[in-house]
Structure formats: structure tokens, C-alpha cells
């Protein structure tokens, strides 16, 4: 064997090893645990367990998503929140409906609340049909609506934000100069937040975090960015809007407001192409603080 062929073989082997590593990392499913501390959390919600799922797209996790359902059941959540992109816009209605058994099974574990992401917004007719089927199964679809979540005789507010496709992509398919999501936009869609209560916001995109916090969200759950698609050294490289190094990609973020501190937890999601960026389930546990600044 010549030196040239030996070198080529080494490069091929290194490439195969690297490829195998990346494929393995792609198919891992990581569970992240966060304690959410806030003085507005009612006493009855101490230890309340919120399971956050996002961005499934075309991934199946076994027949009827049973592998994902089994993992979720292990964490005994009080509620399950799905923050959009349950399917991809390119799917037909028959493949989209395959998500229904999975969502039904999740709803047996704990009440499921679901909002639209940008892929649902891109195909509202398909998403609307899906909404009807999910509602029949007892799943709550929040479309710029709010509900009270009770524990004993106390409650927190849960809001579900739905944005039109124009906030994600221009009509010509470009991503430049998209309209901004401001506090005024949020008030027009969700009303005025009661800042005396703990407000939990489901929002597909994490990008307007400052607006969410200023509007009155104490905790925002978001997805959309897929962890930055490719992660190097804990940094996500690209957003779905084709922007490099997006500000929010994965994990827990803090924003200071005049009313106190707001948190946002961003999931890297369950599906879509990714490198060095495992799929993710988040468990957020509410903890009551006696500090009025938390």
C-alpha cells in the first residue's frame, strides 16, 4: 500500500468515525431539568411539573410516537406543553394525522396544551383540520387564548401565542425585514397580562423575548430554532431565518424588567436535521420564592 493510499484510507476512516459520532448524537434524546423560581408562584404550585415538547416535524419515535410517550411518562408531569411545529408544512394531511395517536397517548399522561408554530401557520387549512381532531381527543389548542391552570383552589395563567406566517417569512420566501413582535402586538393578540399573577406563555419563536417579558410573561416556553441546528462549543450557529449565531437557541434565559425578572426556556426540539445537537425534552419545575424580586 502506498503512502498516498494509506493517507486516503486514514481520512476515510476519520470521516466514517466522525459521521458515526454525529449520527449517534443526532439520535440521542436528552432530558433537561430546570427549577423555575418566582415569588408569584402560588403555594399550591410548589413542585408543579411542566413537560415541554417542541418541533417534532417528521420524526416518528416509533409507531404512534410510543417511544417518546414512554419517556414522557417517566417524569410524571402535571401538564404537557407543545410549542408548535407538530408537523412539517410539506406533509400531506394523511401523514399529519398520524400525530393524533401520539398526542392522545400524551394526554393520558397529563393534560396537553398545544400552539401553532411557523409550519402550522404556513398551512392553516391542514392545521385547522388537525386542531379539530386534537380537540376531539381533549387536547387544548390555544390560538391567542388563555386558560387558568388550577392546583387546589389556586391558579396560574397559561397563554398560547399564535403568530401569522409573515412574522417568520416574507411572501416571496425571503427573511429580510420581517415585522417585529412588540408588546403592542402581544396586547392586540393576548390582551393585557395580569402582572399580579404568575403568567406562563407558550410562544413558538424565542426571538422577541424582551417583548414577552415586558408584556408580562414570567416564564416563556419556546422552540423554533432547533438549538441553532449545528452546535459547536455550546453555541448554535444558524436560525430558521438563515441568521448566523441567533441570540436564543437552547436553555434558560433571563430578562430584567421594571416588574422583576422573567425567564424563558428554549427547547432545541425533537426533530429536523441537526449536528452535535441532540433532541430535547424539558422538565420545568415551579418553585415558590419568598423574595419579591424573583
The SSE order reads HEEHEHHEHHEEEHEHEEEEEE
Major sheet: arrangement of strands: 1-14-2-3-4-5
Share of helical residues? 25-40%
How many β-strands, per DSSP? 14
> Taking Cα atoms only, what radius of gyration do you get, to the nearest Å?
20 Å
**Biggest β-sheet description:** 6 strands, mixed
Instruction: Give the averaged pLDDT, no decimals.
Output: 90
The parts where pLDDT drops under 50 for at least 5 residues are 1-26
Give the overall shape, derived from the CA principal axes. globular
Overall structural class, as computed from helix and strand content, comes to: alpha/beta
**Tally of DSSP helical segments:** 8
> How big a fraction of the residues is strand?
25-35%
Query: How far apart are the termini?
Result: 67 Å
Keywords for this entry:
27% helix, alpha/beta, 294 residues, 8 helices, disordered N terminus, six-stranded mixed beta sheet
Explain what the structure shows.
Helix content is 27%, strand content 25%. The chain is built from eight helices and 14 strands. Helix 7 crosses helix 8. It starts with a helix and ends in a 6-residue tail after the last strand. Strands 1-14-2-3-4-5 form a six-stranded mixed sheet, covered by helices on one side. Strands 6-7-8-9-13-12 form a six-stranded mixed sheet, with helices on one face. It is an alpha/beta fold and 294 residues long. Helix 8 links the parallel strand 8 and strand 9.
What is the gist of this entry?
It contains eight helices and 14 strands.
Amino acid at each position: 500500500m502506498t503512502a498516498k493510499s494509506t493517507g486516503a484510507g486514514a481520512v476515510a476512516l476519520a470521516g466514517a468515525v466522525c459521521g458515526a459520532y454525529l449520527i449517534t448524537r443526532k439520535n440521542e434524546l436528552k432530558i433537561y431539568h430546570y427549577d423555575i423560581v418566582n415569588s408569584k408562584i402560588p403555594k399550591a404550585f410548589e413542585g408543579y411539573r411542566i413537560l415541554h415538547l417542541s418541533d417534532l416535524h417528521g420524526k416518528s419515535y416509533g409507531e404512534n410516537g410510543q417511544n417518546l410517550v414512554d419517556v414522557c411518562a417517566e417524569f410524571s408531569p402535571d401538564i404537557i406543553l407543545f410549542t408548535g411545529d407538530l408537523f412539517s408544512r410539506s406533509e400531506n394531511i394523511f401523514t399529519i394525522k398520524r400525530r393524533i395517536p401520539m398526542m392522545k397517548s400524551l394526554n393520558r399522561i397529563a393534560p396537553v396544551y398545544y400552539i401553532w408554530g411557523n409550519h402550522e401557520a404556513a398551512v392553516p387549512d391542514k392545521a385547522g383540520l388537525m386542531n379539530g381532531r386534537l380537540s376531539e381527543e381533549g387536547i387544548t389548542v390555544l390560538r391567542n387564548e388563555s386558560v387558568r391552570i388550577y392546583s387546589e383552589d389556586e391558579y396560574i395563567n397559561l397563554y398560547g401565542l399564535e403568530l401569522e406566517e409573515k412574522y417568520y417569512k416574507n411572501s416571496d420566501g425571503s427573511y429580510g425585514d420581517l415585522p417585529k413582535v412588540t408588546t403592542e402586538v402581544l396586547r392586540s393578540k393576548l390582551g393585557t397580562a395580569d402582572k399580579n399573577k404568575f403568567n406562563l406563555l407558550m410562544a413558538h419563536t424565542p426571538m422577541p423575548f424582551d417583548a414577552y417579558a415586558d408584556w408580562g410573561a414570567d416564564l416563556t416556553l419556546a422552540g423554533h430554532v432547533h438549538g441553532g441546528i449545528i452546535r459547536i462549543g455550546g453555541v448554535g450557529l444558524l436560525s430558521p431565518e438563515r441568521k448566523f449565531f441567533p441570540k436564543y437557541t437552547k436553555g434558560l434565559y433571563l430578562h430584567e424588567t421594571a416588574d422583576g425578572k422573567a425567564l424563558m426556556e428554549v427547547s432545541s426540539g425533537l426533530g429536523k436535521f441537526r449536528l452535535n445537537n441532540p433532541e430535547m425534552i424539558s422538565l420545568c419545575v415551579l418553585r415558590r420564592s419568598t423574595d419579591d424580586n424573583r
